[in-house]
Amino acid sequence: MTNDQRRTTMSEVSISRKEGMEREGQIHSTAVLKTFIKEMTLLQKSLILDLGCICDSNIEIFTHLGCKVFVTDLLNANARTWTNSGGMGEIGVDEAQIDLEYPENLFDGILLWDIFDHFGFEEARLLINNARRILKDKGWALALFRPAKQTPFNTITRYRIVSLGEIRYENLPLIIQRSKIYYNRDITDLFSDFSSYTSYILKNRWREVIARK
């Protein structure tokens, strides 16, 4: 499949997916998804790791584009940890399930949508270091951070791809603490070991980041 064919397929998948979706959640723009997908489809059989909530339609889209997708649902696992502990206090570094048991330099891309907000900075730093370790050289990471206000502190959001420029935000019935609000300086610190990163503030005030190892 050529790159042009992949781009056409992405457009066709997006349109059919958008028309067939139930009207749940809200659709917002994305500034970096198009770049991420372009980089993944430039490679032959790129490997992608999704660390957010499982979304079958996203997996189908990436698979249809020739990618192989792995999923590790970190938030679901940590939501259960927090709920089972009675919801008291914060999840500590030793309790947080952020170990990524994959070989070094394995993945071409990693999705980190709405993850960091639910961990303190120390845990987030461990997570991004683990993610960077399993990324290939020149691999890409995509992240999304909530705004300081206007979002519930204890909800988990799943992101469903609608098109190259749009994502549907879906709130899930899972409860987990929002441990930290991430400001510019925190995000800069998290991605300081990457060779480059670009940050965008979206119209809904969420912050999107795309970084290259």
Please characterize this protein's 3D structure:
- By secondary structure, the chain is an alpha/beta fold.
- Strand 2, helix 3 and strand 3 form a beta-alpha-beta unit.
- The chain is built from 6 helices and 9 strands.
- It has one domain: Rossmann fold (3-Layer(aba) Sandwich).
Spell out the blueprint of helices and strands.
Layout: H1 3-20, E1 26-29, H2 33-41, E2 47-50, H3 56-64, E3 68-71, H4 74-84, E4 107-113, H5 121-134, E5 135-145, E6 155-163, E7 166-175, H6 184-190, E8 196-201, E9 207-212
Parallel strand pairs: 2-3, 2-4, 4-5
Antiparallel strand pairs: 1-7, 5-9, 6-7, 8-9
Task: Give structural attributes.
213 residues, three-stranded antiparallel sheet, 6 helices, 9 strands, globular
In short:
With 213 residues, the protein is an alpha/beta fold. The protein has helices at 3-20, 33-41, 56-64, 74-84, 121-134, 184-190; strands at 26-29, 47-50, 68-71, 107-113, 135-145, 155-163, 166-175, 196-201, 207-212.
